[in-house]
Amino acid sequence: MKRALGRPLACLMFLVTLLDADQFLSQNTASQFLSRHTRANTMFEESKKGNLERECIEELCNKEEAREIFENQPETEYFYPRYVGCLGSHRVGINNQNSDSNIPSDLRTCVKEISDQCTPSPCSKDGSKGCKDGHASFTCVCKSGWKGQLCEDDIDECSDPDFPAGCNQKCLNIPGSFHCMCEDGYFLNDNIHCVDVNECLLFPSICEKPAKCVNAPGMYECQCPLGFKYTSTSRTCDGEIYVHDFFSQPHFIQFCCS
After folding, report:
1. What residues have CB less than 8 Å from 240, skipping those under 6 apart?
2. How far is the C-alpha of 110 from the C-alpha of 106, rounded, in Å?
């Protein structure tokens, strides 16, 4: 009796198992149409910053995918309209190699130049020493002696109160720099300050005896003994003595002191 009841019970349990499996497979199949199809490299792509080369050049990217690449809204808003322009110029086969357009001749260059604000560099070649890329912006790094958003303006250190050259006599402005100059009788020290030249010390024989060399700011003077005057052409001390002659008018006798 037990054996007769066991067979129908076993068949019933087997049938229920098949029905449950069929129901499970149906739900699993249906879920494939409801779930998002992820890419093969999803383990790496979902966990780190998107790759511009892979997402938007080798493949086409939408605006949301572009935002995942840049991870900020301003740069996404800057990038995506220009990216669409690159696609229109290259993906559809429009040839612009012989045109006057500034669009690069291949898609890869076109797209990469959008995301890098410093390629090509917008900064002045003369005044900048570098360019820093930002979020849909750039910053030019100026050389010393230059200013402006693009480092295009030479600083006139000779007249600009914000960038004083510091020359204490003459100043000559040159592109990106300046040059201090001195009046006669001075020499340039530390490229900024003018210092008096001591001609008496540098040239001990500049005055003929009995004249004595006396240094002064920017010049020197040969001083003769009292009653004498130095003549630079002859480099001598010349004097005059007053003589009174009873038989003639008073007059001066000129002589030279040596």
Report:
1. 252, 253, 254, 255
2. 6
- The confidence band for 47, taking pLDDT boundaries of 50, 70 and 90, is very low
Distance set, CA 177 to CA 134, 143, 145, 162, 172 (Å): 29, 10, 5, 14, 9
- Any idea where the domains of the chain sit in the sequence? 40-92+108-115, 121-154, 155-196, 198-248
Instruction: Establish whether domains 121-154 and 198-248 are of one fold.
Output: yes
Helix 73-90 × helix 63-70 angle, to 10°: 130
Q: Provide mean pLDDT across the span 233-253.
A: 60
User: Whole-angstrom Cα distance, residue 12 to residue 83?
Assistant: 64
**Strand partners for 154:** 146
Tokens of 247: 């038989």
Of the listed ranges 29-43, 54-68, 122-136, 210-224, the least confidently predicted one is: 29-43
CATH topology of domain 155-196: Laminin (2.10.25)
Would you state the torsion angle of the CA atoms of residues 19, 25, 28, 30, taken in this order, to the nearest 10 degrees?
-90
Position 8 confidence tier, pLDDT thresholds 50, 70, 90:
low
Report how far apart the first and last C-alpha atoms of the chain are (Å, whole number). 163
Q: 198-248 is classed in which CATH architecture? A: Ribbon (2.10)
Q: Which architecture, in CATH terms, is 121-154? A: Ribbon (2.10)
> Sign of the CA dihedral 202, 207, 213, 215?
negative
What would you report as the CA-atom Rg of the chain, rounded to the nearest whole angstrom?
47
The structure tokens listed for 79 are 């990038």
